[in-house]
Each structure stands twice: as C-alpha cells, then as structure tokens.
Amino acid sequence: WSVCTTPESLPMGEAGDEYVTKYQNPAEADKVTKIQNDLDETTSILHKTIDSVLERGVKLDNLVDKSNDLSAQSKMFYKQAKKTNSCCVVS
C-alpha cells in the first residue's frame, strides 16, 4: 500500500476495471434489484399486450356488428328483388 499514492495507482488489472464498471450501476450489483427491474419491465409489457388485445376485441366486435348489418340488408335486398321480379316472369 505504500506505493499507492492515488486511487488510480491501485494495481487492479482488467478484472478490477470490469468490477468497478459493473458495480457503478446498483442494478447490476444487486441481483434482487435487477430481478425487480426485469419484473417491472415484464409487467409493463404485459399491460401493453393486454390493452392491445382488448382493443382488438372491440374492433372485432364492431366488425361482427357490421357483418350482421350487411347480412340483414342483403336479405332485404334479395326479398325486394324477388318481389319486384315476380311480375315479370317470362316462361
């Protein structure tokens, strides 16, 4: 220790530099914090996914309603066309 006059002069080598860099970020140093951050990120992604699925469900419901309306209109058109054409039957 007598040769070390400043913190930069400590002989740590490459491994020491890696540890210093790694442990500058508390999330990397503490595994529990890192896992909690990962869980928070996963929860956020799941919430976004659930919101997207719900929006898609609403869009599908609207599409089904429009499809039912179109089906009813086509049946009414068919009946009206059949009634209109019944007077003009050529044998």
Mean pLDDT: 82
Number of strands: 0
How many helices in DSSP terms? 3
What multimeric state do the chains show?
single chain
> What order do the helices and strands follow?
HHH
Q: Helix coverage percent of residues?
A: over 70%
Helix/sheet category: mainly alpha
Q: Could you tell me how far the N terminus lies from the C terminus, measured between alpha carbons in angstroms?
A: 117 Å
Using only C-alpha atoms, the radius of gyration works out to 36 Å
User: Segments where pLDDT lies below 50 for 5+ residues?
Assistant: none
The biggest beta sheet reads:
none
Overall spatial form? rod-shaped
- Beta content comes to under 5%
Which helices and strands occur, and which strands form pairs?
Blueprint: H1 13-22, H2 26-29, H3 31-85
Summarize it:
The protein is an all-alpha fold. The chain has three helices and no strands.
Task: Please give a structural write-up.
With 91 residues, the protein is mainly alpha-helical. The protein is built from three helices and no strands. The chain has helices spanning 13-22, 26-29, 31-85. It is rod-shaped. The termini are far apart. The mean pLDDT is 82.
